[in-house]
Amino acid sequence: MSDTALEMRFNKPTEKSRPAPQLEALTIGSLVGTWKNVNAATRDIVEVVLTNSGGALGVHAYGACSPTPCDWGQVPGQAYAASVAGGAAVAFTANYAFGFKNTILTGHLDGKHLIVDDFNVFEDGSGRSAYFTQGTFKKV
After folding, report:
1. Would 61 be classed as within a structural domain?
2. With a threshold of 0.70, does the pTM exceed it?
């Protein structure tokens, strides 16, 4: 990282500090809800439930298991606005630590859909490769 970026405290012009009246609070209502994978035959994530608990984002994912989906549990999420000015959230990240693998979930709104990316790294010495999947979800 360059010393210049550290001195300026921004990496691009849109990150420059602005006077407080131009800033909006980050709101997560646009993300909150139950999102189902549009691919009913997926072998990956079948459902993501995003909740608002006092302004904090909760992420609860479910994997494709049979006869019922695997409950990944709820973890804290980080919501992101489209710019430093704030406003409605358009994306999120969440981290799952399963013991045998670590998973990073990212999601972003694309029209009426939520695109969820799933990054996985095995930590169990099994030799399995890190892998990535992506799914398209619709709010139900």
Report:
1. yes
2. yes
